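Open question from group meeting: does this chain pack into something compact, or does most of it stay loose? Before anyone orders reagents, we agreed to write out a predicted structure and look at it together. Recording both the input and the output here so the notebook holds the full record.
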Amino acid sequence: MNYNGPKILRVIFFAIPFFCFLVNLYSQEVDITSALKNLEVGKIDAAQTELQKLKEDNSSDPSVIFLDAVLTRNAEESIKKYSTVFEKYPKSKYADVSLYRVFSYYYSLGYYKKAESYYKRLKIDYPASPYIAAADRKIPDKEEIITPSAIVTNVADTTKNNSTLQPQKEKAKFTIQAGAFLSVDNANRLKELLSKDGFPSEIINKVVGGSLLKVVTTGQFISEAEAKSSLSQIEAKYNLKGRVIPLPAKP
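C-alpha cells returned:
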C-alpha cells in the first residue's frame, strides 16, 4: 500500500489557512451604519453617494445589498433585493429585517397567504428576531389585492420607522425607552448600537427631578402589547432594562 502521509499533511497545512480565510470572508459584513444614520436624518443624497462607493468594491456584500434595497424607490425592485439578502445570505445581520419587509410588502398588497408564508418563515428561521412581534397580526381570510403601483416607497420615512411598505392604517402610540442617561455620550453609544443592528432610535430630552436626561427610544408600535413583546427581545439581546412609554406628542 502506497502511503502518502506527507503529501496529505501538506494539503491539510495549506487548506487550513484557506478555510480560515473563507470563514472570515463570510462572517464579516460591510458597516453601513453611517449611511443608515444619514437616512435617519433625511440625508438621502449622502446615503446614495455612500452606497455607490460601497458598491464599487462590495456589490455582493449582504449589508450593501440591504442598503441598496432601502434606497430603491421602486417597490418591486426593492423586494427583489431584500429577498436576495435572506435567500443568499441567511446569516446576515440584516436577513431577518429583509424577510420582515418582504412580508410587509405582500401584506400591504393584500396577498395575505403569501405574506403569512413569509411570517412563518421568519418565526422558524429567526426565532429571536424582534420583527416577529412587529409582523404578528391577524391575517385576513379574504385577500384584497392591490396593484403594486399603489405602493409608494418614501426612502427617508421607511428607514426611520423600520417598516418599509408596511401599511399605516393606525397611528403608532407607543415606543420603547431603552435607556435614560445624564451623559450625552452614553446615550449616543446606545443609540448607535441599536441603529447599527437595524433598530431605528432617537434621543429625546426629559427633565426628571430637575435633571435633564437623554432618553434613548426605539421603535413605534400601535399597541402596548406589541411594544412589550419587542421590549422583551431587545432586553435579552442587549442585556438592558427598558420600558414601554407613550410616544411623545408631535408639535
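Observations to bring back to the group:
Strands lie at 174-181, 201-208, 211-221, 243-246.
The longest helix spans residues 5-27.
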